[in-house]
Amino acid sequence: MTEQEKAAIVIETLDRLFPQPLIPLEHKDPYTLLISALLSAQTTDAMVNRVTPILFEKADTPQKMARLNVDEILKIIKPCGLAPQKAKNIHRLSQMLVDQHGGQVPASFEELETLPGVGHKTASVVMAQAFGIAAFPVDTHIHRLAYRWGLSNGKSVQQTEKDLKRIFPEDQWIKLHLQIIYFGREYCPARNHDPKACPLCSKIGRKEP
């Protein structure tokens, strides 16, 4: 089966199962999405969604967040993984947004990735979900499933992103990013997976892991 044949099956299956996927991180604007996406590293989306309402009640703009001290931020986000470093990054990036961007989140990969704690995946989430700019954020679910389905060699998330962007149409990237995450959680887990019962592995084959 060719990559394009696999891609067509993936799109058809995911559109049927998750026709209108919603971003799992609760947010109201580009800034709150940026903070939520930063917090989601090494933490579940559910945990982030429990923490952010408390955080955003105190500070939901860069100006308000910069006025908090790092310890105040840390106290709220402590349940999230890597909380001490995230608290420092949230404070520093908020101050940078105020000082360098007029309190606005920039709609640019280059500018986003200069912010503390914002890597390419976080920047991709913000670009796609806040600004509607074509991006294909690759998290652990997507990296794992791209290899499992034979769409990438599994060497790195950077290579997986390049492969998926090459295989799938650009106007599908934003939706597919969310669809694959939801599919991995519900139908195609890393462990105790039955490929014969999987709506995609049963059709396009399966590699380990």
Structure description:
It is a single chain. With 209 residues, this protein is mainly alpha-helical. It folds into 2 domains: 3-21 and 136-204, Endonuclease Iii, domain 2 (Orthogonal Bundle); 30-131, Orthogonal Bundle (Endonuclease III, domain 1), CATH 1.10.340. Helix content is 60%, strand content 0%. The protein has 12 helices and no strands. Helix 1 crosses helix 11 and helix 2 (30-39) packs across helix 3. The chain is elongated, with a radius of gyration of 18 Å. It starts with a helix and ends in a 5-residue tail after the last helix. The model has no long low-confidence stretch (mean pLDDT 95).
pLDDT < 50 stretches: none
CATH architecture label name of the largest domain: Orthogonal Bundle
Task: Count up the domains.
Answer: 2
Radius of gyration from the alpha-carbon trace, in angstroms: 18 Å
List the secondary-structure elements in sequence, H or E.
HHHHHHHHHHHH
- Please describe the biggest sheet, giving its number of strands, its sense, and whether it closes into a barrel: none
Principal-axis shape: elongated
User: pLDDT average, as an integer?
Assistant: 95
